[in-house]
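Changelog-adjacent note: as of this version, every example in the card shows the full chain rather than a window. The one below runs 321 residues end to end.
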Amino acid sequence: MIDDIRETKECQLKDPMDLFHSGQVVKICAPMVRYSKLAFRTLVRKYSCDLCYTPMIVAADFVRSAKARDSEFTTNKGDHPLIVQFAAKEAQILCDAARIICPFADGIDLNCGCPQRWAMSEGYGACLINKPELVKDMVRHVRSQIDNPKFSVSIKIRIHEDLKRTVDLCQKAEAAGVSWITVHGRSTEERHQPVHYDAIKIIKQSMSIPIVANGDIKSLKDAENVHHLTEADGIMVARGLLANPAMFAGYEETPFQCIQDWVDIALEHGTPFTCFHHHLMYMMERITSKQEKKVFNVLSSTSAVLDYLNDHYGLGEMKVC
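Full-length structure tokens:
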């Protein structure tokens, strides 16, 4: 897929830092395994999302395998600004991945926040918040080996029980040249506990670079509230956007036009059925009854889904231009 976009690469790239200098809170689609792929990024960009991340990609696999590159990364000329998130634990591997992706994306992000057991057992994700010197080294290496000064290098972290350690990590990353830091306001052990927005505010007040707040943001009103609580420069949303891809545009629930847009975009991109269907299940969660869910959620083909949407909502027919 990289070869398919090679000829359009130069003129489309953008400087993500321009967003943080705009004076507006930057609205960001989080990296989501299986979900924040090209088709979904295309959808949320239609509804006031400023910046999108790819799902997390293991840098070592990406560097080693052309098959992995083709399956894990797709983009097009409208898919900007775009941040590619990598899982990495070695500076040179991250640099090699960054060099490969640099012509096609606007920046990379190092995942220092994934709490899943498999990631941490491999030395990836949230275990890196306990290795500030390694994080600093990885950021510095990418900064020194990528010639494009507009190419961003960011990190996404969780917080420590002792917040001084988190501030120290962030300051070390800043000294190494990190562009911005996204803070998920929970510790590695926390899952559904309340987000520590006060901790994000303390981190923000300790830094000179932009800070992005992440965690339990499910509406535009939530985003505005979190901005006021944390003073963050950007707001990153994951599950809130899955449930309502139009939330950044101010919609309280997914509008039918957004569902129609997803059908059009997904079919145009050849989105696999399971992904196509799961996104619709998330989007329609708040607007369908229990009985409707029982029927819709067990549909097993694209044609069955399109028939259901057409019969019940007058949706689903792909637009022909």
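Structural remarks: The chain is about 45% helix and 10% strand.
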